[in-house]
Amino acid sequence: MAKLDDLLVVLEEEVHSFSSSVAELKTFAEELKEPQLQRELQRIRILIEDKQEQQNRRLEREFQEIRELKQKLQKSQLIPRWIIILYGLVLVLCLLFFIVGLVI
């Protein structure tokens, strides 16, 4: 019986705590419905949307700049191809002249 009484006391405390929490939520919900608070919330939403728009535009500009930079980097090389081909041809010619000189 003592355990049942203890459980009832705990249950009663929980119900009282729950009812006080519900009352607090009701007052909070009523405060949210006040016109002044609604205007403030609307202003905050507008500010957030503006900032988000600005951030999206800035990000798009940065992405475009990165794309352009990537294209420029792909086009430019450390050593142009024509120099590599010319160097290879000179090397092959020198090697041929060296081999021909050894044979003769």
UniProtKB/TrEMBL annotation:
InterPro entries: DUF6730 (IPR046617). The keyword Transmembrane applies. The keyword Membrane applies. Keywords: Coiled coil, Membrane, Transmembrane, Transmembrane helix. It comes from the Bacteria. The chain crosses the membrane at residues 82-103. Residues 34-79 form a coiled coil. This is Uncharacterized protein. It comes from Pustulibacterium marinum.
